[in-house]
């Protein structure tokens, strides 16, 4: 699966980044973290709440840093 980020410039869509993700590696945990890494948490309204879907994956990634 390809994940792309884009912006609109002068009425046209401009792709600014592309990331290839193997769907077989995705889990039910927070997909934003799986797609974008821990930086996804910077603006997440669910961070440090009971509704956070990435608690375990965050712990795992923080140990690797």
Architecture blueprint of SSEs:
Blueprint: E1 2-9, E2 12-20, H1 31-36, H2 55-64
Antiparallel strand pairs: 1-2
The count of domains is 1
Separate helix tally: 2
Note the gap between the termini: 26 Å
- Which stretches of 5+ consecutive residues score pLDDT under 50? none
What characterizes the major β-sheet? Answer: 2 strands, antiparallel
Could you give the count of β-strands? 2
- Rg computed from alpha carbons, rounded to a whole number of angstroms: 14 Å
Kindly state the mean pLDDT as a whole number?
Answer: 94
User: Could you state the order of secondary-structure elements as H and E?
Assistant: EEHH
Task: Specify the structural class.
Answer: alpha+beta
Which band does the percent of strand residues land in?
25-35%
Q: What global shape is seen?
A: globular
Roughly how much helix do the residues carry, as a percent range? 10-25%
Strand order of the largest sheet: 1-2
Descriptive account of the structure:
The protein has 65 residues and is an alpha+beta fold. The protein has one domain. The protein contains two helices and two strands, in the order E-E-H-H. It has helices at residues 31-36, 55-64, and strands at 2-9, 12-20. The chain has a two-stranded antiparallel ribbon. A hairpin with a 2-residue loop joins strand 1 and strand 2. The protein starts with a strand and ends with a helix. The relative contact order is 0.16. The mean pLDDT is 94.
């Amino acid at each position: 699966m390809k994940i792309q980020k884009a912006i609109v410039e002068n009425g046209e869509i401009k792709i600014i980044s592309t990331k290839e993700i193997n769907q077989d590696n995705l889990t039910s945990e927070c997909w934003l973290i799986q797609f974008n890494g821990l930086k996804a948490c910077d603006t997440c309204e669910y961070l440090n709440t009971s509704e956070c879907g990435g608690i375990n994956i965050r712990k795992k990634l923080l140990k690797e840093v």
